[in-house]
Write a structure and sequence with these properties.
- The model has no long low-confidence stretch (mean pLDDT about 95).
- It is built from 6 helices and no strands.
- The chain is mainly alpha-helical and about 200 residues long.
- Belongs to the Dps family.
Length: about 200
């Protein structure tokens, strides 16, 4: 090897701050599959848990968006209180979204990430594009909570039978408890109670 060759080999390539734009890659893991992780759970248990969690994840993402929409569209005498409540619940749902998605990833699965994919999977009906009356918006939230709760109760029992304590804990301690509490808060706004008795 000549001295020039040695110098060329030792000279580092010039670095650039230019981003590598418009890259595309091959899909390295398909949705609906699980990788093997050393977490002491069978393939079947992890696959089943990921399927159930992804359903809850999609419905939770839709509920979060309903809360944000209703936060913006509230009306009437209790506007301020409901405006703040909708935002508080939206933030709590956002935290659940991350918890559920991370559990899917922990199991070796692929969490639903694209909103168009979420729309294909969710069991929660699409609301009108416009503004509904306030009681209808609140009722729509309660129905979404009930959809998530019914599915989560069933999923929690079934993943427990398969030995997946971690997924059971996420569903019971996080999803179910949060949704039950939020449903209570929303439902109390639909009680027709006079402010003063005559």
């Amino acid at each position: 090897m000549t001295t020039a060759d040695q110098r060329a080999k030792q000279t580092p390539k010039p670095r650039s701050s230019q981003p590598w734009l418009h890259q595309r890659g091959e899909e390295i893991q398909q949705f609906g599959t699980v990788r093997q992780f050393p977490i002491g759970l069978s393939y079947d248990a992890r696959m089943y848990s990921c399927q159930r969690l992804n359903q809850v994840l999609c419905d939770t993402r839709i509920l979060h968006d309903l809360y944000k929409k209703h936060h913006w569209l509230m009306r009437g005498q209790t506007f301020y209180q409901l405006h703040l409540l909708m935002d508080k619940h939206a933030d709590e749902q956002l935290a659940l979204i991350d918890t559920i998605a991370e559990r899917v990833q922990t199991l070796g699965g692929v969490a639903v990430g694209d909103p168009r994919h979420v729309a294909e999977i969710t069991a929660i009906p699409r609301p009108p594009n416009g503004v509904e009356e306030v009681p209808a918006m609140l009722s729509r939230l309660l129905e979404a909570h009930e959809t998530i709760l019914e599915d989560s109760h069933d999923a929690a029992a079934r993943v427990q039978e398969m030995g997946d304590d971690g997924t059971n804990d996420v569903l019971v301690s996080d999803v179910i408890r949060t949704n039950e509490l939020e449903a209570w808060f929303v439902a109390e706004h639909l009680v027709d109670t006079p402010l003063v008795r005559s």
